[in-house]
Structure formats: structure tokens, C-alpha cells
Task: structure prediction
Amino acid sequence: MLKILLLPFAIIYGTITGIRNKLFDWGIIKSKSFNIPIISIGNINMGGTGKSPHIEYLVRLLQSNNNVATLSRGYKRKTKGFKLVKQQATALEVGDEPAQFKHKFRNITVAVDEKRVHGVKKLQELDPYLNVVLLDDAFQHRYIKPGLSILLTDFHNTYNNDYLFPSGTLRESRSGAKRADIIIITKMPKVLSPITKRRLYNEIKPKEHQELFTTYLKYGKLNHVFKKSPVTKAKKFSTIIMVSGIANPYPLEEHLRRKCNELITLSYKDHHNFSKKDILNIKKIFDNTFTKNKAIITTEKDAMRIMSAEGNELIKELPLYYISVEIGFHKEQKQKFDRIIKKYVRKNSENK
Result:
């Protein structure tokens, strides 16, 4: 009923975004091309589709043979303009995802700029040997024409089954998916049956120029948020307090339920900046949980924001961990995906 009531607003929103896209399609609003490989990673649905682990996958794939940079707008940062992300940068200064990228990959260039064209130009000025830029969350940022566009969609809420905002979570019409060169259905079950694969292919209906892939999440070791003392194996706890400020925490929740007897969930809105009140509440719940073998577990992005939070010294000595996560491709898809990415980068680097 609510979706129906919001339908008139969705039509208005869709008309506005549709006109904007047509202006780009017709060249009335110009898109800038660059002479180096630009790979865009984004989505049509609002909320989390797993962009960060997919960007990290691309970094791991390319960094040994290329000078790689990531460029984000730095969502919810307190600064403005172009900014290079340093190792000690906080989420408040640059945003949680760029802070996470630099924290994990020290040898790549990480930058933020709400004006992406300006950001790429600055990156080229600062590093003449730069030969790959990964644009984070840039599917709707059409002022740059990427050489390769990757569209992500969540298995539990694919764009073809969703509706325009505010009736649904679509940022633009489903037809916008045609701009993608690669479509990845994310957060799939690890075991993919041929029937499910066929059904998804028939639902997405990729165009002739598009490749369709499927990925799943692989959770790894626990890392202490404030100490360099990783728990190499995610051991069994009596109680886990899960703290999450991400759009779709359900895969992590499902994973952690298998690691404990009791799971307490503390959910905040996406990209939530933790306050001292939040920190005190987390500590209170931990102190009032009367089991010995207990822990607080959060995501890596949330850890970046917790480290920036006022009052975080109150929980520094608690067993507070973030869990690492990577993506996996189903069966032979990894080799095909890697081959497409490397071929594109190699060909366009040679033409520079």
C-alpha cells in the first residue's frame, strides 16, 4: 500500500532522472573521457551491493603490474574538495570506504573528490605513471565516461525486481543498466545451482555487449579494531554483539549466528557516524551481557568510523573486532572476469 501511495513521487523522480540521462545520451551534457583505463563500479539500487569488496578484488588483481588509484566522493566526510588519503586518515576526514582502502592497501593511491573529473585530472598531475583509476560508486556519475563500467546488484534485491525511489530503492530506471559492460549479481549463496543460474540470466537478460557474473562473500579472520592482534580463526563465542551501520547487514548476521550461541544485533543507518552516546550504549550492552566468552564484532567500514568516534577510548580494551570479507566468483567465472579486466587495462594502457 505504501509503495502505491508513493508511486506519484516515484514517477516524478523517474522523469527527472530520465531527462538527465537523455541529456547525457544526446551529448547536451558532456561526458569526459580520459586517456588511461577508468573502471567504474556502482549500482542502480540504493544501499549496499558489496562495492567495497569488489573494488578490493580489482586492486588485488591489478596492483602488482599497474599504478592503481581509487577515487571516491568520500561520503559523509567533513572535508571538501580533492584530498589524498593518508595512512592515518580518519573516516571523518575522507569517508569510511577510502579510509578502509588506504588502511588495507598502503602502496596504491587513494583519493576523494566530489567532482570526479577534477579528481582524475589531479591524480594524473600527481602521478604521470598512473595507469588505472577505479571509480567507487560512480554508475550515476556520468560526467566521466568510463572505459569499463561494472554494475552490481544484490541477489536478494536485484534491480529488475525493484521500483524507482521512493516506491522502491532504484536510483534510476532499470533501463539504465544497459550502460554497464559487466553486471555482477552479488551476495549469492556459495553453491550455485544450474537452475538458479539460468533463472537469474533470464531475469537480468544481459545485452549482447554485456557479461554476467555472480559472486558470493567470503568472511575471513577477526582483527582487533584498536590492537594489532588478529584472531586467525573466527572461534566460537557464547555471545556476539554485532554492531553494524551498513545498508544490508543480513549476510554478516547470518554468518555470525553460526559462530555463537546468542547473537545481539545493534543496527544503525548506512554510513552512521558513531557518537559518544553510541559508544556508551555499546559498552553498556557488553557489560550487561553475563557470559564470559563474549565479543563485539563489526564490519571493516564500521571499524573505520568507530576509530573516529568521540569516546572510543571507553571500548579500546574490550574484545572489539572487525571481520574481513572478500568476494569469490562461482566456478570458472573468476578466470573469465580476470581476463576481461586485464585485457582492458593492458590494451588501454598501451594506447596512452
Q: What stands out?
A: The mean pLDDT is 93.
